[in-house]
Amino acid sequence: xxxxxxxxxxxxxxxxxxxxxxxxxxxxxxxxxxxxxxxxxxxxxxxxxxxxxxxxxxxxxxxxxxxxxxxxxxxxxxxxxxxxxxxxxxxxxxxxxxxxxxxxxxxxxxxxx
Length: 113
Hints:
Elements: E1 13-16, H1 22-33, H2 39-46, E2 51-61, E3 64-73, E4 80-87, H3 93-110
Antiparallel strand pairs: 1-2, 2-3, 3-4
Helix pairs in contact: 1-2
């Protein structure tokens, strides 16, 4: 596999975050990072004006969330940040994380500022 390519994870669909998905993202982050991530801060960020829902994604298998990634706008022109990457432990977690980040990067590249 060439640099920059991602291996698709069988049975996993990656979709854009929708209104109401905040709890899914929070649960994935809490499961992945426990007390290392300050959940009240993340909750405020993903409900705030800088969270880019269209550039944030959730990976699912049969309706069960397996991972997430978020794109955040900065209050500076043309600045974006990839945050909130969390993937449930599985044999394909590296590939799934790579797919989520690639999806967020594709979206960021497609934005015309």
